Amino acid sequence: MVANKPKMNRPKVYQFKLGDFTITNLLEGYIHREDMHPVTGTNATADEVQAVAEANRLPFPNFEHNFVPSMVDTGDKLIALDPGFGARAHGPTTGWLNDLLPEAGYTLDDVDYVVVTHCHPDHIGNLTTAEGDPTFPNAEIVFGRTEFDYWMKGENIPSFRPPTLKMFQETCVPMADRARYVEPGDDIVTGVTAVDAFGHSAGHMAYHIESNGQELMIMSDTVAHYAVSLSHPDWHFGMDDNPEAAVVSRKRVLSQVADDKMAAIGFHMPFPSVGYVERRGDGFAWVAASYQMNLER
Ligand SMILES: [Zn+2]
After folding, report:
1. From the CA of 216, how far away is ligand 1's center (Å)?
2. Which residues of 22-50 are buried (b: 16+ CB within 10 A; e: fewer)?
3. What spacing in Å lies between the alpha carbon of 178 and ligand 1's midpoint?
4. Ligand 1 center to residue 120 CA distance, Å?
5. Among candidates 220, 223, 218, which has minimal Cα distance to 235?
6. For residue 123, how far is its CA from the centre of ligand 1 (angstroms)?
7. Res 9: pLDDT
8. What pLDDT score does 3 carry?
C-alpha cells in the first residue's frame, strides 16, 4: 500500500533563539554534484580530498551542496540574509525559500531588509521575481559597497563568471536606487554588523549577530564544505573569485568564531547549517549544533 509514497522527507525550516533575536534557517534547496575534487580543493590532489571525505565517512566524489539563507528577527525588524535563487532556481531542488517562509511564520511583505552577502547567483536570484518585480516589496536591499561596485564595473571578472555578471545586471542593478550600501563594521540594525570576508568574491561579507550576550557569525560563503574547507582552509574552493584572498579571510573568520566560542551559520553547511568551529590540527573542524539552540540560554 505504501510502495509509491515519497520517502525523502527532510527538515527545511529550523528556528531558534539567540538572545532576544529569533534566527530562522531555511533550506532554499540543494544540488548533488560529482566533483568534490576539484571543486572543494582546486589546489589539492584528488587523493587528498578523498582522504578527507573518507575520514568524515562521506562518499567521494559525489556530494550534496546545500543553500541556506537565514532570517534574523530582532523583534522589531526582519532581516533576510541572502534571498536565495528564487525564480532563478538551479533546477527543481532549489528555489524553495518563498514557499517555506510561511512555515517560519513570515510573509514576503514582512521582510524589512534583504542583506546581500555577495552577488553570486545563489545569493541574488530571488531579489526579483521572474517578471522583474521586487520579491520582497517592502524591503530595503543592502549591498556591500565594494561588492556592488566590483560587479557594476564588471571588469576583469573570472572566466567562469559572465553568467553571474548577467544575473547581477538583471536582479541587482534595478534595485540600485532602493538600496543601501555598507562597509565592514557598519550595522544594518543594532546587533547585526558587517564583517570583512573579502575573497570568495571581491567584497564578500560575513555578518556578526549579537543579542543579549549571545553571539553568532553568519559566515555565508567564507567556507564552502563543512569537512574539507574547515580542515584545510588553505585549499581553494572552485567558486572563489580571488582564492588567495579567500584563504586569508577564511582563516581570520574561522579563528574568531573558534576562539570566541560563538555559534556559526554557513550558507553551504549541511542543513540546519548551524554549529560551532573548533581548532583541530593545522585547521579547524565543524561541530554541528545538536540541542544547544533549543535550550533557553
Ligand atoms: Zn553561495
Report:
1. 19
2. bbbbbbbbbeeeeebbbbbbeebeeeebb
3. 24
4. 6
5. 223
6. 6
7. 86
8. 65
The CA distance from 149 to 201, in Å, is 12
Q: Into how many domains does the chain fold? A: 1
As a whole number of angstroms, the distance between CA 158 and CA 270 comes to 27
Sheet holding 113-116, edge to edge: 13-18, 21-26, 70-73, 78-81, 113-116, 140-144, 179-182
CATH number at residue 234: 3.60.15.10
d(CA 272, CA 259): 22
Q: How many Å lie between the centroid of ligand 1 and the Cα of residue 270?
A: 13
Q: What confidence score (pLDDT) does residue 296 get?
A: 74
**Domain presence at residue 244:** yes
**Rounded to the nearest whole angstrom, what is the distance from the C-alpha of residue 214 to the centroid of ligand 1?**
26
Q: Ligand 1 mean position to 118 CA, how many Å?
A: 8
Count of positions (residues) in the chain: 297
**6, part of any domain:** no
pLDDT < 50: residue spans in the chain: none
The DSSP bridge pattern shows strands 21-26 and 70-73 to be antiparallel
281 CA distance to ligand 1 middle (Å): 27
Task: Give 110-155 pLDDT, tens digit per residue.
Answer: 999 999 999 999 999 999 999 999 999 999 999 999 999 999 999 9
Tell me the three cell numbers of residue 23: 534566527
Interval between CA 111 and ligand 1 midpoint (Å) = 21
Q: Measured between alpha carbons, how far is 185 from 205 in angstroms, rounded to an integer? A: 10
Grid cell 540546519 is found at 272
Domain with 219 in it: 13-294
Looking at the domain assignment, is residue 5 inside a domain?
no
What letter does residue 50 receive in the DSSP assignment?
H
